[in-house]
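Q: What would this chain look like folded?
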Amino acid sequence: MSRSTGSVPDSALADTVLDRLTTVYPKGADPARAAKVRAYMKDISPTVYPKGADPARAAKVRAYMKDISPFLGIPTPERRALSRTVLEGTPRPDERDCTAIALRCWALEEREYRYFAVDYLRRHAKSLSAGFLPVIRTLVVTNSWWDTVDLLAARVVGPLVSADPKLRSVMDRWIEDPDMWVARTALLHQLGHKDTTDTTRLFAYCLRQAGHPDFFVRKAIGWCLREYAKTDPAAVRDFVGQYRDVLSPLSAREALKNL
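A: My prediction, written as structure tokens:
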């Protein structure tokens, strides 16, 4: 059964995977848990924040924690066990297969199918080329939320840029993108790069988006700085000290959390 539409490439492997996926995954669904997930995502209570939380920031988080999609309610360990069943005996994909699988999973209603696609792309990131970045951008800007964006940034975009340094110029464009999730992807793509981090770009990206009004971008600035501080704490401390008046309190606090 082919589900390819529009610009999604034909792929026999994608047909096999999607047919198995939509047969196997629903068997693991937990309707009660799915209802709880939907309720949590739709109306998270401000009481989960510390008493000293910034009410404005909390309001933005609540606004974004909306009912982004239906869920099957499958916990991650069980979902990944089902994924192994889905993928048993399938060949290693090429980039065309990865494109078809990712876009077709994104077209399915329940969120777990997208988690499958993200895991699949992470596993086969070495099979992807620079030409896959437009596909990732489509995934990042479609029904966006941190649960898919962050893993795509760190585990798919990051390896692609490391493998092809010419893609740094693409990240230079993404950090300027008006879509906050694309900018967040550029900020987070070097997570875990340690001593191979391009610090010039890391710090420049943080400054470029330091005044961003959204919680998730300010949080990402602090996160990527905090991660790099594990490699060079002095550099991060000096950067935050120099630009404390430019960085938001949230970004500065997150950057220095473990120092």
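Residues 146-163 form the longest helix (18 residues).
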